[in-house]
Specification:
The complex is a heterodimer of chains A (146) and B (384). Chain A is elongated, with a radius of gyration of 28 Å. With 146 residues, chain A is α+β, with helices and mostly antiparallel strands. Helix content of chain A is 19%, strand content 32%. In chain A, strand 3 and strand 4 form a beta hairpin. Chain A contains one helix and ten strands; from the N terminus they run H-E-E-E-E-E-E-E-E-E-E. Chain A has a domain of 97 residues: Rieske [2Fe-2S] iron-sulphur domain (Rieske Iron-sulfur Protein, 3-layer Sandwich), CATH 2.102.10.10. With 384 residues, chain B is mainly alpha-helical. Chain B folds into two domains: 256 residues, Cytochrome Bc1 Complex, Chain C, CATH 1.20.810.10; 94 residues, Helix Hairpins. Chain B contains 16 helices and five strands. In chain B, the strands form two sheets. Chain B has a three-stranded antiparallel β-sheet. In chain B, strands 1-2 form a two-stranded antiparallel ribbon. The longest helix of chain B is centred in the middle third of the chain and has 33 residues. Classes of the chains: A alpha+beta (146), B mainly alpha (384). At the A-B interface, loops of A face helix 7 and helix 8 of B.
Chain lengths: 146, 384
């Protein structure tokens, strides 16, 4: 192996500088492109709340599906005093669950996943419970905090 | 006649003063006269049929774009308008919808023919790799186009498809958000899928197809001789590309177009209900060509399943580098053919299991409930 230093002439050096500059430009332009394609955050960013209507019109053992801030919400009247609200997006593959009054369970119609009244996954493929939302009756109105 | 002859002579002279016409004519004549091996048969038309279908998709796609509106408020209505009001709109849409399904079928047949005749071996490894990438691009074409009519089935099928993509470790959530343009399928997703479907993928597919064809024309069609012992076809037994093979392809195109038109008329693609983001229909399934992969994932825990599911496509992509046997005739490659045929059978079985899973089906008068894994159980309730 020779110990002679590798000689770089002026033209080769300039070629390398130009190629390096082009590569740097390409990388620099990729940043705004990816940032542009990255989805902008939806909603106001503040904690929002949504009404599920008057409590007196909400029969025991029934459910309502709402949409707020672009997100779906399922509200269930479990008993006279108790309401529960969840994100109805199934933790398996993103289908929307529905309330089954007969069995008092929350069921995913896509792959027969079953959740209990606390949103816990009890049967089928869903790997996680449904994320809960806090729900309260404020001046006769059922209000879900997102 | 003399006017035409004079015009041709004028145009040829005019072009000849500006372009190397002799070289171009020599190149075209060489390509047209290229001899094909004697084993070339009707099975060799699957590739050109796929090309014909790509042309069909481009032409009908451009026509559909005239009336289609890619917004959640108008997408369904515009497709409905195309199907019911625009003159021959139902026919154009039917050709596009059936064309996408048939294109994937033709590509699968083309891949199967290439595998069985070992046409992927040296020196055609790169042609195979480009072909597999092309198949992936065409499946992505189907997936992005599926959402565009904004129906219940397309909306929720896309939701499931993007959830599967999102469950890939590390990059999955990032890729899913980028694909969806948010947290769920919405107008943002429709815009993104539309842009990818009508701008990005056509360029990708046309580019890959061009490279695939250039490689195929440069290297010629594979003979059935072992690797390194290929004899260039010559003599009376060879088939000239022009006119014999080209005319054979034209016959196939004509028959195929007639079959397609019949399918469009007798088996119309129903539009179904408009997408409702608050109601998921029961037992929603992805498109048939995604079903085997989708069903395969059910048998493994999520992370393991996604790791395992990357192996079959990788094996297919790298097949020319894994199969070192120089023989091309099927009976001289028993191991490769057995594994390949078993893999094809497994794919079909997975697709069938995926189709029937989570459904009640009556077989010979008895009701069966197919569970999540596609295993049938006697269903006394459904039997009543």
């Amino acid at each position: 192996m020779s110990d002679d230093p590798v000689k770089t002439d002026r033209r080769t050096f300039l070629d390398m500088v130009i190629f390096g500059g082009l590569a740097a430009w390409g990388t620099a332009m990729a940043v705004p492109t990816v940032a542009y394609l990255w989805p902008a955050r939806s909603g106001s960013g503040k904690a929002a709340s949504v009404s599920a209507g008057p409590a007196k019109d909400f029969a025991v053992g029934t459910a309502k599906m709402l949409q707020a801030e672009g997100k779906p919400v399922i509200v269930i009247r479990v008993s006279e005093e108790l309401f529960r609200a969840f994100s109805p997006i199934c933790s398996h593959l993103g289908c929307l669950v529905k309330w089954e009054a007969e069995t008092r369970t929350i069921v995913c119609p896509c792959h027969a996943g079953i959740f209990d009244l606390e949103g816990k996954n009890v049967s089928g493929p869903p790997p996680r419970p449904l994320p809960p939302y806090s729900v309260a009756v404020v001046e006769g109105e059922v209000v879900v905090k997102l | 006649m003399s006017v035409t002859r004079n015009l041709v002579t004028f145009v040829r002279r005019w072009l000849g003063e500006r372009l190397p016409m002799d070289d171009i004519e020599h190149f075209v004549a060489k390509q047209a006269g290229k001899p094909l091996p004697p084993h070339v048969s009707w099975f060799h038309t699957f590739g050109s049929l796929s090309l014909f279908l790509l042309g069909n998709q481009i032409v009908t796609g451009i026509l559909l774009m005239v009336y289609y509106r890619p917004t959640p408020e108008r997408a369904y209505e515009s497709v409905h308008f195309i199907s019911t009001k625009a003159a021959f709109g139902w026919f154009i849409r039917g050709l596009h919808a059936w064309g996408s399904t048939l294109m994937i079928i033709m590509l699968l047949l083309h891949v199967a023919r290439t595998f069985l005749m070992a046409a992927y071996k040296k020196p055609r490894e790169l042609t195979w790799v480009i072909g597999v990438l092309l198949f992936g691009a065409v499946v992505t074409f189907g997936f992005t186009g599926y959402l565009l009519p904004w129906t219940q089935v397309s909306y929720w099928g896309t939701t499931i498809g993007t959830e599967v993509a999102g469950s890939v470790p590390l990059v999955g959530p990032f890729a899913k958000r980028l694909l969806l343009g948010g947290d769920a399928v919405s107008g943002e997703t429709l815009s993104r899928f539309y842009v990818v479907h009508v701008i990005v993928l056509p360029w990708v597919v046309v580019f890959l197809t061009a490279v695939h064809i250039v490689l195929m024309r440069t290297q010629g069609l594979a003979t059935m001789d072992p690797v390194g012992k290929e004899v260039i076809p010559e003599g009376k037994s060879v088939i000239p590309f022009w006119p014999h093979h080209v005319l054979k392809e034209m016959v196939v195109f004509s028959v195929f177009l007639a079959i397609m038109a019949t399918m469009v008329i007798l088996l119309p693609q129903e539009l179904g209900a408009k997408a409702d983001p608050l109601v998921t229909p029961a037992a929603i399934k992805p498109e048939w060509y995604i079903l085997p992969g989708y069903q395969f994932l059910k048998y493994f825990p999520k992370m393991l399943g996604l790791a395992v599911s990357t192996i079959p496509p990788l094996l297919v992509l790298l097949l020319p580098f894994l199969d070192r046997n120089p023989e091309r005739r099927a009976r001289k490659r028993p191991v490769c053919i057995t594994v390949g045929v078993m893999a094809m059978a497994a794919t079909v079985l997975l697709g069938i299991a995926g189709h029937f899973s989570e459904r009640s089906v009556r077989i010979f008068g008895r009701a069966y409930q197919f569970d999540h894994f596609g295993i049938p159980h006697r269903s006394p309730e459904a039997a009543r």
